[in-house]
Amino acid sequence: MTTDIQAEVFTGNFTQQEPLPQAAVDAAMAVLNHGRLHRYNEAPDEVAEAAALEVEFAEMMGAKYCLGVASGGYALATALRALGVKPGDNVLTNAFTLAPVPGSIAAVGAVPIFVGVTQDLVIDLDDLAAKASQANVLMLSHMRGHIVDMDKLMAVARAHGLQVVEDCAHTMGAKWAHTWSGRFGAIGCYSTQTYKHVNSGEGGLLVTDDEDLMAKATMLSGSYMLYGKHRAGAGDQAFEDVRLSTPNISGRMDNLRAAILRPQLADLSRQCARWNERYAAVDAGLAETPGLTRISRPEQEKFVASSHQFLLLDWPDDAIRSVVDRCLARGVELKWFGAPDPVGFTSRYSSWTYAPSQPMPTSDRVLRAVMDMRLPLTFSLEDCHQIARIIRAEVGAAFQNL
Questions:
Q1: Which of 144, 137, 87 has its CA nearest to residue 115?
Q2: CATH superfamily membership of 268-400
Q3: CB 136 within 8 Å of CB 162
Q4: Fewest CB atoms within 10 Å of the CB: 63, 77, 141, 336?
Q5: Measured between alpha carbons, how far is 80 from 138 in angstroms, rounded to an integer?
Q6: DSSP 124
Q7: pTM of the full predicted structure?
Q8: Where are the domains of the chain?
Q9: Using an 8 Å Cβ cutoff, are 165 and 139 in contact?
Q10: Do the domains 268-400 and 22-266 match in fold?
Q11: Is the torsion defined by CA of 272, 311, 92, 204 positive or negative?
Q12: d(CA 134, CA 378)
């Protein structure tokens, strides 16, 4: 029997995550039952959940040091402070990112300098090279899981003396070639917010191989003089010069969230493969849709696609709104980054009026066209095929009327 595509309506929920694994529930209950939620509140001979999480994530990422914190945004701001970024300093960052990234720069009193985006939704390396002399630090956002050619980016960074902080909120478990996302720059920062690749509601992780940076970050996070409890932390000698001169800007990871995260980290590779299966189903279903531009992914990019993006390049605003509205009427929630005003999580560099910016016509053309869609693991592969059919039908119908 032939499916009536025009009559199809998707009934899934784009914000519904999978239940936490039973091992995470059991671990959380153990913490709740003993009551030692604060990371430094340990029983004799006990390894706190937060300390154990840091060890496990450092080992997973091949990093010397790891610090658990309250959010991904907090990790980013802590990274900047540890690198010595001061109020009034410029920090380079992507024009295509989410608000917590420039927000973390503003949080330390620094000034975001936005770098353009390519049609593949990665940072424009030519624009980066042109602006590199304006700052000492690049906060690189692997926005929506798209990873730029990191070999070329790090060559630009070395040539201009840029320290790189990687925002890996959307790339935990991803690689460029054989290197984990977050392991190219001085510091890698990750989010464990509900819509990321592991879920503790809120939370963040920071990794580095630099002992001095880790010591500063640990003090900043609010360790007091309890830094020796960090089993994936810097050695005591690294704290001698910073333990009294570094402000406590409390943002610690607690044992409850750490307990929830540890079983999820153990299952991360399997979950990443499941996301990519769903991405592949949607992406294949959108192939050769008239008027729709898919995002190319180079072979070296070992991505984790918990969301899907495509472009409606050079479409008028009313036609894009029509696609969004018509898809929504059929149960498919698309987010448009090009909307004149921010909606939900979506906004553009020009929306953040606390940060000065100049129009970037090439990037603005891309940003106007970005359509974004979550792919929770609660979706089956057949759900993804149906979603693609609906998008394909509505984009095709709208394109015929342009």
A1: 137
A2: Aspartate Aminotransferase, domain 1 (3.90.1150.10)
A3: yes
A4: 336
A5: 10
A6: -
A7: 0.96
A8: 22-266, 268-400
A9: yes
A10: no
A11: negative
A12: 44
> In Å, what is the CA distance from 85 to each residue of 74, 88, 90, 142, 357?
15, 9, 8, 21, 20
- Contact criterion met (CB below 8 Å) for 359 and 260: no
Selected from 3.30.420.10, 3.40.50.720, 3.40.640.10, 3.40.190.80, the CATH number assigned to the domain covering 22-266 reads 3.40.640.10
Closest CA to 146 of 354, 345, 307: 307
Residue 349 contacts residue 245 (beta carbons within 8 Å): no
90-94 and 137-141: which strand pairing?
parallel
Over residues 65-91, mean pLDDT: 98
Amino acid at 402: L
220 SS3 class: helix
CA distances from 376 to 169, 258, 330, 379 (A): 16, 22, 18, 6
For 100-117, write each residue's pLDDT tens digit: 999 999 999 999 999 999
**The tokens of 199 are what?**
């879920």
Nearest to 105 by CA among 119, 121, 88, 122: 88
DSSP H or E run through 231: none
